[in-house]
Amino acid sequence: MSRTTGAKLLVQSLEQQGATNIFGVPGESYLAVLDALCDAPSLRFVNARQEGGASMMADAHAKLTGEVGLCMVTRGPGATNASSGVHVAFQDSTPMILFIGQVARDQLEREAFQEIDYRRMFGQMAKWVAQIDDAARVPEFIARAYHTALSGRPGPVVLALPEDMLRDEVAKPARLPAKAKPADSAPSPAALEEIGTLLAAAERPLMIIGGGGWSQAARDAVVSFAEANALPVGTSFRCQDYFPNHHPNHAGHVGLGINPALAEKIRQSDLLLVLGARLGDCTTSSYTLIDSPVPSQTLIHIHADPEELGRVFDPTLAIAARHETAAIALASLGTVRSEQTAGWVSGLHEDYEAFFAVPARKSPGAVQMADVMKHIEAQTPQDTIYTNGAGNYAIWVHRFLTYGGWRSQLAATSGSMGYGLPAAVAAAIAAPDRTVICFAGDGCFQMTCQEFATAAQEGASIKVILVNNSSYGTIRMHQERTYPTRVSGTNLINPDFAAMARAMGGHAETVTKTEDFPDAFARMLAHDGPALIEIITDPDAITPVRTISDLRSGG
Question: Is the per-residue pLDDT at 454 higher than 80?
Answer without folding.
Answer: yes
